[in-house]
Each structure stands twice: as C-alpha cells, then as structure tokens.
Amino acid sequence: MTSLTGKTVNLICDFGKTPVPEEAIYRSKIGVMDCVGVALAGSREPVGKVMGDYAAALADGGEATLWGSARKVVATEAALVNGTLAHALDYDDMNRSMLGHPTSVLAPALFAVCEQRRLSGRKLLEGYIVGLEVMARIGRIFGQAAYAKSWHPTAIMGALGASAGASYLMGLDRERTVHALGIAASEASGLKKNFGSMVKPLHAGSTARKGLWAAALAEKGLVADAEVLDGQFGFFEMFNGRQAEPGAIDDDIAQLDILDAGLVFKQYPCCGGVHSLIDNAVSLRQKEALQPDEVREIECRLHPSRIAYLDRPDARENLEAKFSIQFCVATALANGRVGLRQFSEAGLAQPATRGLMPKVRVVPAAELAGFASEVIVRRRDGRQVSSALPEPRGSKSSPFTEEDMTRKFVDCAMEIMSAAQAEKAVAALMSLDTRDDVGDILRTLVPS
Known about the structure:
This protein is α+β, with helices and mostly antiparallel strands. It folds into 2 domains: 305 residues, 2-methylcitrate dehydratase PrpD (Orthogonal Bundle), CATH 1.10.4100.10; 118 residues, CATH 3.30.1330.120. Helices cover 52% and strands 7% of the residues. It is built from 20 helices and 6 strands. The strands form 2 sheets. It has a 4-stranded mixed beta sheet. The chain has a two-stranded antiparallel ribbon with strand order 1-2. Strand 5 and strand 6 form a beta hairpin. The chain is globular. The protein starts with a helix and ends in a 5-residue tail after the last helix.
C-alpha cells in the first residue's frame, strides 16, 4: 500500500513485527503517568465539575473506569470524560512534531480499550507509541499550516492517532484499519477560537472518544473511503490546504518520534506558548531579587504566531488566564512561581499580579522561532535586566528528571487524595509495563 493512507495503515499493522525499544516504553510510561496526574487535578476545575455532572447521569456497569473514582461506564464515555479532565488544566504534555497534546487523547482512549478487552499495560504502551507515531508523522507534513488556519492539532491529528492506537490494540486487520482511519478523519475537528474556554479541554476528550468509536465501528464492519488521507477532498487537502505526496509519510517503524522529538512536559498549568516567558520572568525575579513595586515596564518578545492567541491584557477567568501573556508573566514576577494555586480565584485577583499586568508590553519578534522568548524588565530607577531562552524547561534540550515528574504527579494527585496514596499511585503507574490488568492500577487512584 503506497498511498498516504496505505503507508499509515502499514505503520499501524506492522508495528508489532519488530521489538519496541525499552527507552520508548519508559518514555511512554512517564507520559501516561503525567497525564493521569493532571487529570486528577483537573477534576477540581470548573470544566471538571461539569464533566462530573455529565458522568453522574451515565449508566453504571460499563467496561472502563472514570479516573479518580471506582465507577465504570461505557468505554467511549470514559474516554470522553477522562480526556477532558486530562486537558482541563492545560498542564498535559506536548509534542513538537504534531504541535499539540498527544497523551490527553491517547491515554484515556487506550486505557478504556485495555480495560474493556483485558489487555496488559505493556500492550497499552505499545498502542500509545503507535498512536503518537501516526500523529507525529502527519504533524511533520502539516508543519504550521493547520495551526495557522485555526485548527487545533490535538483534535484533528488526535482523532487519527487515537483510532490508530485503538485499532492496534483491537488487532484490526489492514482493511478494517483503513476504515477506522476513514471514520476518524471525517470526525476530526477542533477550532482554536475556543482556546481559553471549556471547549478546548473538551477537544481532547471528544477526540479520545471519536478515535475509540471509529475503531469499534470499523471492527463491526462500517466501511469508509479507502484513501481518506489522499487526493481531492481528502484529509490533507481539507486541513492542510493542499494534497501531500505519498512519500511524505514514511512507514518505516525503526525511527520512533518518542525517541527523537519526544514529549515536552509542563512545569506550569497553562498554555505551552507562554512557558519560556514564565521561565524568563521567574529567573529574573530570583537573580535580581525583583519586587513588583520596582517595575516600570515588562517587555515580552516572542514570535508573532503565538501572540495572536496569547495577547489577553485583561484576563480574569481561570481558563482565559492560562492563555494570557500578561497574567502569566505578571504572576511569575509577583510570586516567583506559577502553579495550580495561582489560577485559583484568589490567585486571579492577587493585587500584585493585577498591578503588574498593565505594565506588560507584548512585542512581536520574528527572529524568535518556535517557543523561544525574551523578557526585558525596566525598573523605575532606569536600570534594565533581561533573560532569553530558546525553549522552556521540560523540552528535549532541558528535560525533567523522573523525580521531577513524580513530584508533579504527587502535587496534582493531592488535589483529591493524600500524599501517601499519591506515592502509591505513582509506583503503580510506573509498573504499567509489567501489569496484566490495568484496572489494578486505576483502582489506586480512588481516594481513600
């Protein structure tokens, strides 16, 4: 199969023919642990409470667990709820190849499949790698095009990735995998216009559900177009604005994206586009002992493509603040940190932060590619200090340790459970590759 669709199907169906590198399994395990942790904390957010009310109306006795509870519901609904919680804080990981959030889509969908079919944790991690690989390879072809056209890559590429991972776990043959991708491609959607609203985290949950649903329908015999990624009216023409050549996708499974571009983990619960700015602001406060009343102006320099959705000078609501350069940088300078509490009602109203926000000036800097940024602070006495970074901490060039990730999980999980229980949950999740029953792990997430 030499079309784009065919090569993607080859990638999915041939994945199990070669040994999976243990480093890829380990990195996937860290990604899954991080995703579950931020989902537990996300359950306390306003959108988490909405999803909790939605879940309360669902019938009990299904095949898949709602994370953080003992309840089981139908698999597609568990994927919806868990995926939305995983993206509720915008604290979940990113992947540079797809320019989106892979694990908040993949982990909820694949846990549901594994619970439903009693598959092992090792199998889940293999499905995760397959799904990420599909997202990443398609993302590399897209580049910035879909993002520039106002599509949310997490949602549009996530639909294909989730259906790919689910198809692998279900053991679908080539023909049914083709149809799973075809169904998922028609279901793909997600607008950047909803960034800063509850609908953005819903993108992840809805996409997890769609990917799982697409694979399940294909397994039952629902037929789609056999070359949905290709040609006129195809996925690439629709979302990328142009068709792509079959050679644009490589179906060689030897080079895995998780070992190359990898996952970018977040140390701040807000949009990744502001993270290097926050790093700069925190660094300046620490090195220069800056106090808010000393500051006359804060110049934030970053690429124009990020300014369009991050320039929100008067953000006052939790989700909007996560996409506000002004709020995030002012918070960093006022507090020396940006954590879960800074996005609480009290944090949003903090006088020091509100006083600094009007002093933030956002300046487009085309030479600062990707996620690079510079922060220049001008003091009232005329002195000036600055800090610049090519990438935020947590990226490939400045990775977190396993200890860093464990601390983050415990901090998030303590929103609903004790520190001791959170530590046990970490240990369980980090043993995912040795567990025959993933349900055992999810039971450690139920608050005592």
